[in-house]
Amino acid sequence: MPSPDIVIIGAGMGGATIAHALAPSGAEILILDKGGQLPDRPENRDARAIFQRGFFRPEESWYDSDGRPFNPGNYYCNGGNSKFYGAVLLRYRAEDFDGIAHADGDAPAWPFRYGELAPYYDEAERLFKVRGKAGEDPTEPPRSGDFAFPPVPDERAIAEVRERLSRIGLKPFSLPLGVDIDTWLSHGRTPWDAFPDARTGKMDAETCALLPALEHANVRLKNHCEVRRLIPASDGRRIEAVEYREAGELKRVTPRLVVLAAGAVRSAAILLASSPEGLANRSGMVGRHFMNHNLSAMIGVDPRFTNDSIYQKTFGLNDFYLGDGKGGPPLGNVQLLGRVSGTILKSDLRKVPEFMLNAVARKTIDFLIMSEDLPDPSSRVRLDGEKIVLEWRRSNMTAHEGLKGVMRQALKQAGFPIVLTHLFDRKTPSHQCGTIRIGVDPREAPLDPFGRAFDHPNLFVADASTLVTSAAVNPSLTVAALSLRTAKHIREHAYS
């Protein structure tokens, strides 16, 4: 194989987006992806296969701080986790870049303000064909104009819930979504949240970024290639080679420039596996500051209400994003979950007959309660030999409990007398980020503000590991926007 100009490791939201942005440059680009293309198969729309049998979960184990194994919620396929995501493409709020004081600590400021990233948010929304409506969200940051596509419409039951919440003074807003709903439903009348997409209507990293990038003759994709480590040159400054395993055989490729985009956990693991101290690790911060949103499911039950929706996930609430409504600190974001059926509930309630769970589910409305996880250097990814160890320390639970409290009260006021909550398993990484963060001081961060390694001028990182804070919104659009910004920097300065 001829040596490419650029090797991109990973074809998820970051890797696919940066490949799309670099493709017109003419540089010879090789993308190495651990997975392959997700086939169009019956299990893609089978809730029992997805939720009860774990059909798509990877056959691997990570380990917690006590050495106990667990099966992580990461997926290896072209498009990465975006193939399964809820397609919520929210911008960080402007205040998220400034630093925010929370009840249990402070979220630090980013090395640049929101205005620096705003044009790339615009570009990312166009790339992922985001559906939405500007002006509904009270915390919405400044933007150059409305969305190019109207919002995904509320179903009858969801419109009723939106109206109920509006009547008690809340401000539901249409979630910015990357879904062509007509195409999605034409392939099966199911939700899209957590259902994998084989190019059937979800605007994910493969559909919107990777496939268009591969239309360029200078871009190649090699599937089922697991990158093991990066090999530095003898002077330690530049990355000389990328070592990967393909069909059981170790191979190497020697690019001029490397873009690491394997995800927050695996990108950190690759750097840590590449030398005794870890590459790009002068700061000692590679693998540290792991963040994972605090998430709970909240289900409101009203025996008089009938939820006959199919997909449900069309609006959110940011009324408590910047404060608790009483002059106190921020609490977080609330958004509808994808429709929760009895089939899905049975994955946790295995002893309850499914027909009973379906009857209950028709009387419920289902929300995701999301609060920011604060960066902490002791919350980390590390290696034990070849084992990935995830030592996640929850933070900011005061805010999370506060958000559950105000939403429980709001739902009861809106006519849902029974409200149930379930805290997501801490061993299931959700919106993982922060392990190779950007910064201005090489003593405190592995990367500069453009995602370039301070220690290795031909190494960039372009995935959620670069995020300084987790904020309290889905990270996908921010990862895409940062990748577009990094791509522009590479085109202008990479070989200087």
Could you give the order of strands across the largest sheet?
A: 7-14-15-16-13-19
Mean pLDDT: 96
Number of domains: 1
Specify the CATH class. Alpha Beta
- The total of beta strands comes to 20
Which structural class fits the helix and strand makeup? Answer: alpha+beta
Note the overall shape. globular
CATH architecture: 3-Layer(bba) Sandwich
- Quote the beta fraction: 15-25%
Please name the CATH topology: FAD/NAD(P)-binding domain
Helix segment count? 11
**Oligomeric nature of the chains:** single chain
Domain Glucose-methanol-choline oxidoreductase N-terminal: 200-293
Domain Glucose-methanol-choline oxidoreductase C-terminal: 428-482
InterPro entries: FAD/NAD-bd_sf, GMC_OxRdtase_N, GMC_OxRtase_C, P2Ox-like
Protein name: GMC family oxidoreductase
List keywords for this structure.
11 helices, FAD/NAD(P)-binding domain, alpha+beta, flavoprotein, single chain, 496 residues, 5-stranded parallel sheet, FAD/NAD-bd_sf, 18% strand
How do the strands and helices of this protein lay out in sequence?
Blueprint: E1 6-9, H1 13-22, E2 29-32, H2 47-52, E3 62-63, E4 69-70, E5 100-102, E6 105-107, H3 114-127, H4 156-167, E7 173-174, H5 181-186, H6 205-214, E8 219-222, E9 225-232, E10 239-246, E11 249-253, E12 257-260, H7 264-273, E13 294-301, E14 315-317, E15 333-336, H8 342-345, H9 354-361, E16 364-371, E17 380-384, E18 387-391, H10 397-413, E19 418-423, E20 459-461, H11 476-493
Parallel strand pairs: 1-2, 1-12, 2-8, 12-20
Antiparallel strand pairs: 3-4, 5-6, 7-14, 9-10, 10-11, 13-16, 13-19, 14-15, 15-16, 17-18
Keywords: FAD, Flavoprotein, Oxidoreductase
Organism: Labrys okinawensis
Domain Glucose-methanol-choline oxidoreductase C-terminal: 428-482
